[in-house]
Amino acid sequence: MKKLLIDMDGVISDIYTQFIKYEQEDLGITQTAASLNGKLENEAFRNHDNYVTSKGFFFNAPPILESINVVRQLNDKYDLFIVSAAIQYPNSLQEKLDWLAKHFPFINWKQIVFCGSKSVVCGDIMIDDHFKNLDSFNGQTILFNQPHNFGKDAKLHTRAETWAEIAKILL
Amino acid sequence: MKKLLIDMDGVISDIYTQFIKYEQEDLGITQTAASLNGKLENEAFRNHDNYVTSKGFFFNAPPILESINVVRQLNDKYDLFIVSAAIQYPNSLQEKLDWLAKHFPFINWKQIVFCGSKSVVCGDIMIDDHFKNLDSFNGQTILFNQPHNFGKDAKLHTRAETWAEIAKILL
């Protein structure tokens, strides 16, 4: 079985919805695609660090459309791991475990990796929304569409706009 | 720089001292090398699962002799990661971060990996006390002496009894 590594934030967890909601409540600003596109999250949301360290930010994020259904099918076909660069925000660790247990109960603890840098994980296929993680990965790479990577050249990575597209590629 | 992966429990964190202490307090039993050798931790300590899920078990473990001094020097020479199969015990995650911050403050968050299975981490050298982690690792492997691996054939791994021996091999 091929090893498939799937990122959390921005790939199965819709943290943009959380950022937008938190900023509306915090600053009364409602950002649009035009204001978000091409900017990293901490550039787009000025109080980014406050939000990601708030209790509930990660736990209450909605899953990304169709991700549960497709990941469930991929889990039968691949040696699948959820790999999240979560160590930077220690409060997120328990919330991310709880979030996975709630939305992806078919993922067991042996399939979860929380790291700082993804340079130490290896496998055959990586799905991620950040170039910094995909560029150094020695395998097939799928760039998941998010505002911060919008309009950028996908380089050697395959860009996927939706989980339906990933299903077409990997199932 | 070569990537060096170092395990926590039984390699830098002296959890045997914790197990023995907890069992003394819990059951009034004081185990010796003879009663521990060759048995996995959950075979040697009958209330193992209660201990590892107790608040403070991981945070209060003493560092293994000389580990801090040698890891500090290795940190200058290698691309070093602390890799712990910690996801099985979610309560251990924050304690392990706090323990590292206390005893190994020179290790930054980018160097920490908490996983379920170590089959998804890769690098050039792995130091671990468990065969299950070393056997599938595609690189140089050092088996750190612990009662559970005592007397077993080290196979293709280099056995190290102390951190001074690791220093001789890697520094």
Can you tell me about this structure?
The structure is a homodimer of 171-residue chains. Chain A has 2 domains: 3-14 and 62-170, 3-Layer(aba) Sandwich (Rossmann fold), CATH 3.40.50.1000; 15-52, no CATH class. The relative contact order of chain A is 0.21. In chain A, helix 6 (91-103) links the parallel strand 2 (79-84) and strand 3. The first copy, chain A, is an alpha/beta fold and 171 residues long. In chain A, 36% of the residues lie in helices and 15% in strands. The mean pLDDT of chain A is 96. In chain A, strands 3-2-1-4-5-6 form a 6-stranded parallel beta sheet. The two termini of chain A are 13 Å apart. The first copy, chain A, has 8 helices and 6 strands; from the N terminus they run E-H-H-H-H-H-E-H-E-E-H-E-E-H. The interface between A and B is medium-sized, with 26 and 25 residues.
* Poorly predicted segments of chain A: none
Structural Rg of chain A? 15 Å
Number of helices of chain A: 8
List the secondary-structure elements of chain A in sequence, H or E. EHHHHHEHEEHEEH
How many domains of chain A? The number is 2
List keywords for this structure.
6 strands; six-stranded parallel beta sheet; homodimer; 2 domains
Q: What is the compact description of this entry?
A:
Helices cover 36% and strands 15% of the residues of chain A. The first copy, chain A, has 171 residues and is α/β, with parallel strands linked by helices. In chain A, strand 2 (79-84), helix 6 and strand 3 form a beta-alpha-beta unit.
